[in-house]
Write a structure and sequence with these properties.
The structure is a single chain. The chain is an alpha/beta fold and about 220 residues long. It has a single domain (about 5-210), classed as Bira Bifunctional Protein, Domain 2 (BirA Bifunctional Protein, domain 2), CATH 3.30.930.10. Helices cover about 30% and strands about 30% of the residues. Strands 1, 2, 6, 7, 8, 9, 10 and 11 form an 8-stranded mixed beta sheet that branches. A hairpin with a 2-residue loop joins β8 (about 140-150) and β9. It is globular and about 50 Å long. The two termini are about 15 Å apart. About 35% of the residues are buried.
Length: about 220
């Protein structure tokens, strides 16, 4: 049976506001007041630190961060340090995992598969899963980071897909604690800037295909 997926595109939003929105939506999903929901957003420059993060993975000091206007947030998702910024498509997944399936590892693998299929079909780009490091990779460069948290059976946080993002800003951190690999983006791979609206539409299509949803 095809499930319903609400898609909420909030455009550009500060990280704190988006985090508050997630917590509100998680409570509503736990109470069955809303459908499973995909929130799409771009953030101003921000660094987030997951449960496994270490302070040494942030490579620039607090004063420099303040001068750049970059905030740092400690959050409840899995994983280490991640950068978000304009040109990166972030998706937050407010999904009842127990209604969908109970295995988080398969859920994350299916989420990676969304990007593997989309990149192959829409951009003739071969991307892959990696048994050692979660996320989606083109060669040894990551194009999509993934970090999920679960609160009483409902997921939050999600993915960060590098579309037109400024890759130099990943030099502020050790992304996901991985020192021997790089970052890439659609823009870097294709040599042109992409329409974020077009990428969002493609993402929703492939997400619904993989997870068997109907977008509403």
């Amino acid at each position: 049976m095809t499930r319903k997926l609400a898609v909420m595109d909030v455009g550009r939003m500060g990280y704190a506001e988006a985090l508050e929105l997630q917590f509100s939506m998680v409570e509503k999903r736990q109470a069955d007041e809303i459908e499973d929901t995909l929130i799409l957003v771009e953030h101003p420059e921000v660094i987030t630190m997951g449960r496994s993060a270490t302070e040494s993975d942030v490579l620039i000091g607090p004063e420099q961060l303040r001068s750049l206007g970059v905030e740092v947030f400690h959050v409840n998702r899995g994983g280490e340090v991640t950068y978000h910024g304009p040109g990166q498509l972030v998706g937050y997944l407010i999904i009842n995992l127990y209604n969908h399936q109970r295995k988080l590892k398969k859920f994350v693998g299916d989420l990676e598969e969304v990007f593997v299929r989309m990149l192959a079909a829409e951009y003739n780009t071969e991307a892959r899963h990696d048994d050692e490091h979660r996320g989606v990779w083109v060669g040894n460069d990551k194009i999509t980071a993934i970090g999920i948290a679960i609160k009483n059976a409902v997921t939050m946080h999600g993915f960060a897909f590098n579309v037109n993002v400024e890759l130099d800003h990943f030099g502020w951190i050790v992304p996901c604690g991985i020192k021997d690999r790089g970052q890439t983006s659609l823009q870097a791979l294709l040599g042109r800037q992409l329409s974020m609206d077009s990428v969002k539409a493609q993402l929703v299509k492939y997400f619904c295909d993989v997870f068997q949803y109907e977008a509403i």
